[in-house]
Design brief:
About 45% of the residues lie in helices and about 10% in strands. The chain is of the alpha/beta class and about 375 residues long. The strands form three sheets. Strands 8-1-9-10 form a four-stranded mixed beta sheet. Helix 3 crosses helix 11 (about 270-280), helix 6 packs across helix 7 (about 155-165) and helix 13 packs across helix 15.
Length: about 375
């Protein structure tokens, strides 16, 4: 079925619906989808700049009682392999990030039932006292819900107290697929899609920006994928309507089945790029779309900059969750500059708020460089 009419409507600014999305997923014209997604991206970002952020993912604990079937990282409470990093080790990791001009810390772990609210507020205050300029883009919806449960406080109050202590923004982790059929299959204890949206709206009311994510390859239907995109779009409408910062970015990636308790066929680079493009075409109210080179590899990450992405994501000095699933792509910062230039773009370092900190001239490189480490 021809998709040209659907794509032209999207390019003209018309909002697409469920049937339109299904037609796009039914199409195998991936390059055409990418072409239109890129044109829509250019309406948001007319300058040929692709951004990235220097950040580190600190997995402060691997103890988790949510038991997601797709996760190879967690250890059950009581496991000898479970850990909680000492505060001083976390401070050391942040100092290493600052030393290479890093600005963002993505601090995430499991839903650890042994850590009360005070653990998090004390840690955040300690971080901000030592590193006042670092942006704490940290904690997933599931972690915040667990903190509220352990502390016997409403989720909205917990978000306020965490924000007050130094939590700047929420990453989109835990969205997976925003449909309860698939969520029950892959992570029965993680909460409904509506709960994920509700927590994001609470953070928005608190004045915190957030990001939205999507993971494909769990065996979800194409209708569930489209519903995911529509639900993110609707939530963004509602968050912006009340004057909040809303979702600053959308990031999709593919499920990595290695070392997990789920059998699934690994998604191809073409399937990933198709999903990236359709996401950009369907979601007309989120400005930034981020590449996922950590799961797809740097070359596919580079290609995604022609399929609707304007951002290369984080340099990810450290990452353990995806790596636990035997997915260990590594790049250094100057390689990121090279990849962005090879995509025909001008590289620029940004912060968590997508404010540009530095545009790199032709041939210019980072004075300090590092390789992602686990």
């Amino acid at each position: 079925m021809a998709i040209d009419q659907v794509l032209e409507r999207a390019l003209a600014g018309e909002r697409l619906g469920l049937e339109d999305g299904l037609r796009l997923y039914d199409s195998n014209e991936i390059e055409k989808l990418g072409h239109y997604a890129n044109k829509i991206m250019e309406k948001w970002h007319p300058e040929p700049i692709a951004t990235f952020v220097i950040g580190r993912n600190i997995n402060y604990t691997n103890v988790c009682d949510t038991y997601c079937r797709f996760c190879a990282f967690y250890r059950a409470p009581g496991s000898e392999e479970g850990y909680v990093l000492p505060d001083e080790e976390i401070y050391k990791k942040i100092q290493e990030t600052v030393d290479v001009q890093g600005t963002e810390i993505l601090m995430q772990g499991g839903t650890n039932p042994n850590l009360p609210l005070e653990y998090y507020t004390n840690l955040l205050r300690g971080i901000k006292q030592r590193f006042p300029s670092i942006q704490m883009h940290s904690l997933s919806v599931a972690e915040i819900v667990k903190i509220a449960e352990v502390s016997n406080k409403p989720v909205e109050e917990v978000i306020h107290l965490l924000h007050e202590a130094g939590l700047d923004s929420l990453p989109g982790a835990g969205a997976e697929i925003l449909d309860d059929r698939t969520r029950k299959k892959i992570s029965r204890l993680k909460g409904t899609w509506q709960q994920w949206i509700d927590v994001m709206k609470m953070a928005n009311r608190e004045g915190m920006s957030t990001t939205a994510t999507m993971v494909i390859g769990f065996g979800e239907s194409m209708e569930e994928r489209v519903l995911h995109l529509l639900r993110v779009r609707e939530a963004q409408d509602e968050m912006k309507a009340v004057g909040g910062p809303g979702f600053l970015a959308f990031i999709s990636w593919t499920f990595q089945p290695e070392n997990t308790n789920m059998k699934a066929e690994k998604q191809t680079p073409e399937q990933y790029l198709k999903n990236v493009a359709i996401s950009r075409i369907m979601i007309d109210n989120i400005p930034n779309f981020q590449s996922s080179w950590v799961t797809m590899g740097p070359d596919v990450g580079k290609l995604s900059l022609s399929y609707g992405c304007n951002d290369f994501g984080s340099t990810m000095m450290e990452e353990n969750v995806v790596s636990a699933a035997a997915c260990t792509y590594k790049v250094n910062t100057n390689h990121i500059l090279q990849l962005i230039r090879e995509a025909g773009k001008i590289p620029a370092q940004r912060n968590t708020k997508y404010e540009i900190l530095r545009v790199f001239k032709e041939g210019e490189s980072m004075e300090t460089d590092f390789v992602m480490q686990n």
